Amino acid sequence: MTLPAGHPLVDGRTSASLLVRAMRGDRPATRPVWFMRQAGRSLPEYRAAREGTEMLEACLTPDLAAEITLQPVRRLGVDAAVYFSDIVVPVLLAGVGVRIVSGRGPVVDEPVRSASDVLRLRPLDPDALAPIREAVGIVVDGLGSTPLIAFGGAPYTLASYLVEGGPSKDQLRTRALMVSDPHTWAALLNWCADVTGAFLRAQVEAGASAAQLFDSWMGTLSRGDYQKRVAPHSRRAFDALRGTEVPRVHFGLGAGEVLDLLPAIGAEVIGIDWRLPLEAAAERIGAPLPLQGNIDPAYLGAPWDLLAAHARDVMRRGDALPGHIVNLGHGVPPETDPDVLARLVELVHAEP
Amino acid sequence: MTLPAGHPLVDGRTSASLLVRAMRGDRPATRPVWFMRQAGRSLPEYRAAREGTEMLEACLTPDLAAEITLQPVRRLGVDAAVYFSDIVVPVLLAGVGVRIVSGRGPVVDEPVRSASDVLRLRPLDPDALAPIREAVGIVVDGLGSTPLIAFGGAPYTLASYLVEGGPSKDQLRTRALMVSDPHTWAALLNWCADVTGAFLRAQVEAGASAAQLFDSWMGTLSRGDYQKRVAPHSRRAFDALRGTEVPRVHFGLGAGEVLDLLPAIGAEVIGIDWRLPLEAAAERIGAPLPLQGNIDPAYLGAPWDLLAAHARDVMRRGDALPGHIVNLGHGVPPETDPDVLARLVELVHAEP
């Protein structure tokens, strides 16, 4: 499929890029590839740039966040940048006390567990997003015709950090609030949807060419709870992008049980983890959407031949899709050798 | 269904118990109920009994392990005891250095990550299981006609502790070994199957009336990897029970994608977490097996009416099964109020 003349994106900066074409349902001869969490941990130039700067401070320093976002594009030859940030950044900008504790993750000063805790949450002042807009502007200038993907955490995952107060294996306190107090839950998830929606929208208005919502913890939910108590809020987050026309990408870890519900939340591209082969995922989704994924990160440390065979297998399974953006089934593990990622990009670009 | 006269279990100590009858496909008028992790953390008498004793030391002290196993039967009125232990106990008894670090979980002194690491693993000396047999003997004497369920970790979950060296969110190192070095992987999983199989068998020979294999991490696997690289080893663990005739129960967290593969590993009863309703799980399994579960532990802290309605809904969904043992969809959370568990047992026993 070729976009018709007169389409609002035909003359855009990135509309001819492999990524945007594939996300809009085109099948370019070369398949686009990028990696979730490519900006950060595994790159030595990232560790050098971050030295002496706390994670959230780095996210809010425009020059530094822009530099970290650009690093993997230069080194790996990927077809997109993804905005370097943390899912709690918009929460912090809305005034909630939160820090990233090394080796542990985000820790919230005062966990949000009651109706009165939720009432104390204040809306995100659009002016607070100025450093984000500034960083995205620098990134977009540096990228030229390479697209930037906006990054945001889905309401359920955001809420789970707020309720648990930190990382948790099973989100039990979060799910307990969800089933015990539906009104407080809905208010909390709406707040999360609004802050993450504003965060995504700021990135798009400043020049991002696509927007991806990450729901890291949705796999801990039953289908019924996802459908009734979570999906409407993920939809609300995507709705914040109304009128912007960028492709909306949804990635959820362990989302196999609810893939068919994702088109209705507004997802136009769906990221698939390593648990399901692409053709099985496409069948469950039902709607003919481009898919993103699903190389198993466990292969990144395997002998090259095994990784290459696995990547080619994923690409063959992607052949019949309406569009396929090659990616991992989860973020780049910190110990990954960047040379392996660069070689993987070459392989994807050389394969039909 | 009533067991025919002459059946080898008809005259057994526990063969008329609600649990054993339900696990053999009978539908007693009162439905049996017990709780995964009922022995331990949430009971004050457990914390008192454990005071000053390390976790693994408690597991290997027969009087203490037996007392802890019996406590929830006395307090909660459940229809079965489950043997108090830790999945790394047979690993420790086979000579691997491992400790339980409070708030973190099992930590292995020297993680197992290479062919030579696996070669160094030694078989479990049956004599080392003497404290387990002794504890089970005390429990069985104390239980009378109430059955004891033997407890063991599945090979994949056991291997993941050995490879990661401690708890991990995604079992990435474990899965990397699995895809990188299939021969080392198979040798490691066979070793795990043999130690956990011997551990289960010792409990059954000493008087346990059923045996449950726990695969806490199987939800991190793709269906293909589970089928090819894990299921044969879980089968090997169950095969260690050959000739014992006790019902074999399999519980895997996030097992939705592979439920149909579980009858072939030898599971005769299947535990279902909270992600899928029982009727959907039964449909996927295909074979007419009794199911165990699947009350969502997130409801344990909810107002009683909500928990009661949820428990009744689970029971209604279990009505059409060939057998239903009521349980949680995961272990009892440490902060659970024991009175809520006792009230839940009363509810289950009062419902048709």
Describe what this molecule looks like in 3D.
Two copies of one chain form a homodimer. Chain A has 14 helices and nine strands. Chain A is of the alpha/beta class and 352 residues long. Chain A has one domain: Alpha-Beta Barrel (TIM Barrel). A seven-stranded parallel beta sheet of chain A has the order 1-4-5-6-7-8-9. In chain A, helix 13 (304-318) crosses helix 14. Chain A is globular. Chain A starts with 17 loop residues before the first helix and ends with a helix. The interface between A and B is medium-sized, with 33 and 32 residues. Chains A, B: It is found in: Cytoplasm. Chains A, B: Pathway: Porphyrin-containing compound metabolism; protoporphyrin-IX biosynthesis; coproporphyrinogen-III from 5-aminolevulinate: step 4/4. Chains A, B: It holds the Pfam family URO-D. Chains A, B: It comes from Pseudolysinimonas kribbensis.
Task: Write a concise keyword list for the protein shown above.
homodimer; 352 residues; alpha/beta; TIM Barrel; 7-stranded parallel β-sheet; 14 helices; globular; disordered N terminus
